[in-house]
Amino acid sequence: MSVRYVDVFDQQDVGQRVDNFLLRQLKGVPRQHIYRLLRKGEVRINGGRVKASYRLTLNDRIRIPPVRTADTLPVQYSTKTQQNLTDAILFEDEQYLVIDKPSGIAVHGGSGIGAGVVEILRDMTGNLRLELVHRLDRDTSGCLALAKNRQALTYAQQQFRDRQVKKIYEVFVAGAWPQQFRTVQLKLQRFETSWGERRVKVSSDGRASRTDFAVLDRAANRATRLQATLHTGRTHQIRVHTSANGHPVLGDDKYTQASSEQTTPDAAPRLCLHARKLMIPLERGALKVNAPVSAALEAYWVGLKGLETA
Questions:
Q1: Domain extent listing, the chain
Q2: Catalytic residue numbers?
Q3: Which homologous superfamily is 4-64 in?
Q4: Which of 134, 246, 272, 294 could form a disulfide with 250 if both were Cys (CB 3.0 to 4.6 A apart)?
Q5: What is the dihedral of CA 278, 284, 285, 291, to 10 degrees?
């Protein structure tokens, strides 16, 4: 292996963050390793150091150090996973692909995960330029949008930054959520645990966040089914907002408060958080998709409701 140089000559690459460009160039290399290469100055553009947030311009020359990649290895996924993702497609045109992401599959590879949704779909479709417009936690299901080209990606992500995107979730929480408790606004700060896991906490030094909640149904005082509308998109926002108010998301092993006074129902089959609706304004008209809660989650909720009279 030796140093190689890549010149930016394709307009599809212009404006892309260098870390995302490198993720595509260095197939299978963990994101954390790419950040390390950038911090150490082993990746250079036009002879100089750059940050991960640097956006490529036409005719940039990128120095890429010797890195062992997975280019010679196929993306590994089962026939069942392929069928599940095919069945999960909610919308597709020449610009975008939207799926109802199953719970339990990461949106991208890295940190011990060989391949996620985006890597598998690139392999399935043959479109190596397919990129995530936004992200969902591994255990969260529901609407996930991907862009098929750089122009579509840039436009959609700008709509997210301008807070023009509408995202509505359904979430099952422990206990009886008060009917009048409709808005949570807390400052959230990301941190790493001593074992290196990414978490979020409420902190006066954090970033402002807001979630609006509406009660959809109740299972007596055992659980509440909520609609959650995001006004900001912080990491783990809904999970931290509900837990901080004493009503953790059912099936959440990260933010369930051991000291919570709420009665916790029988073990949930998975994290009970689902991205039900997504609306992205586009120049030609809004992209609107709806993904109903899965049959498995519905069955769990019906079971909780049945406990009322048991």
A1: 4-64, 79-161, 166-306
A2: 137
A3: RNA-binding S4 domain (3.10.290.10)
A4: 272
A5: -30
